[in-house]
Amino acid sequence: MLTPYQPPATSTRAVHVFDMGHSAWQATANPGLWLKPVRQDDVQGHYLGLVRFDAGTRSGLHQHQGVATSFVVEGGLTDYHGALRLHEAGINTPTASSCASPAPACACAHRTVPC
Predict the structure, then answer these.
(1) Contacts by residues 17-26 (CB-CB < 8 Å, ≥ 24 positions apart)
(2) Which residues are paired to 106 by β-bridges?
(3) Per-residue model confidence (pLDDT) at position 100
(4) 3-state secondary structure of 64
(5) What radius of gyration, in Å, describes the C-alpha atoms of the chain?
(6) For strand 89-92 and strand 82-84, is the pairing parallel, antiparallel, or unpaired?
C-alpha cells in the first residue's frame, strides 16, 4: 500500500494537520489489526499513523527493518521485550523481532523509519 503525503503545490504552510478522527480504519491481512495511516510506503519501509489491536489479536512475528516508535494512546501491549502501558513510548531498534499482543485492546501512534 502506498499513501505518500504530497503537500499542495501552492501551500506556504510549514505544518500540515490531519484530522485522524475523520479517517477510516483500514483492515489488514491480520484480522483484528487495523491501520489509520497518514503516510505509508511499504517499499521504502515508512509508516506514520495509528495502529489498533482488537482484544486477543497478535501482530504476528515480524522483524523491524528500521527504527519503529510507538506511543500507546489506549490500552497497552506486550511482546518479547516486555510491556508497553498507557502513555508510554517504546522504540524498537532495527532488526528487533516482535510479536505484540494487546492487553486487552490497544491503540498506538506509530512511526517507522528505515535505516
Answers:
(1) 20/49, 20/50, 25/52, 26/1
(2) 53, 75
(3) 87
(4) coil
(5) 15
(6) unpaired
Backbone torsion region of residue 62, taken as left when φ is above 0, otherwise alpha when ψ lies between -120 and 50, otherwise beta: beta
Own/partner long-range contacts of 96-101 (Cβ < 8 Å, ≥24 apart): 96/63, 96/64, 96/68, 97/61, 97/62, 97/63, 98/59, 98/61, 98/62, 98/63, 98/64, 99/58, 99/59, 99/60, 99/61, 99/62, 100/53, 100/58, 100/59, 101/53, 101/57, 101/58, 101/59, 101/77
Residues of the chain with pLDDT > 90: what percent?
A: 29
Q: Taking phi first (over 0 means left), then psi (-120 to 50 degrees means alpha), and beta for anything else, what does residue 44 get?
A: alpha
pLDDT (tens digit per residue) in 78-87: 888 888 999 9
Cα–Cα distance for residue pair 115/101, rounded to 1 Å: 25
What domains can you pick out in the chain, each with its CATH number?
25-114 (2.60.120.10)
